[in-house]
Write a structure and sequence with these properties.
Elements: E1 11-19, H1 22-33, H2 39-51, H3 53-57, E2 60-63, H4 68-74, H5 78-90, E3 93-94, E4 99-103, H6 108-115, E5 122-126, E6 137-145, H7 149-160, E7 165-173, H8 181-194
Parallel strand pairs: 1-7, 2-3, 2-6, 6-7
Antiparallel strand pairs: 4-5
Helix pairs in contact: 1-2, 2-5
Amino acid sequence: MRPVPGAAAFMVSGAAAFLYDDASRRLILPLKYADRQENALVLGKHMARAAGRLLEQADLLVPVPLHRWRLFRRGFNQAALLTGALQRRSGRRCAWTCCSARAAHGCSACSAQRSGRRSWPAQYRAGDPRALAARQARLLVDDVLTTGATIGACARSLLDAGASHIDVVVAARVADPRAQDAFEDEDRFDEMDEG
């Protein structure tokens, strides 16, 4: 299990199946932007192996939510697909509606383009109270960990709702989130996603 660098202090631990490099991009980017949903099964297999003990100890698997605008455009949430793949491998329960996303300033992609910023921070809030039994350990699932801001915001929301602790598993992590190429793929594929 590889620790996720930059994980917030309230996260007990995290794991990434891959570094975000050319090889992992060939699985992740088509999943996100070319509707290659079958890639979630391959990534999920590697994520389950990387998560190991974290997956065994989780009470609930929670996908990082996708803003409804992106969900409408893309038609699916890649983190939810990865969570489903982990659920099939582990038998763990999933809290599909446990957390929801909304942009802090309206649609994050539109705001980012107008402002020249890469993205506005999203706000996350805990959702379905039936999925939020207090004092449960959550395993937060996402595709790529870049700066940790998204994972951190989701984790804070879940902890505020009563989670005992948050662990994280991602398909890939960016080795150096300050590196320009970490964002270039997202920018290029955001254009495809939008039109």
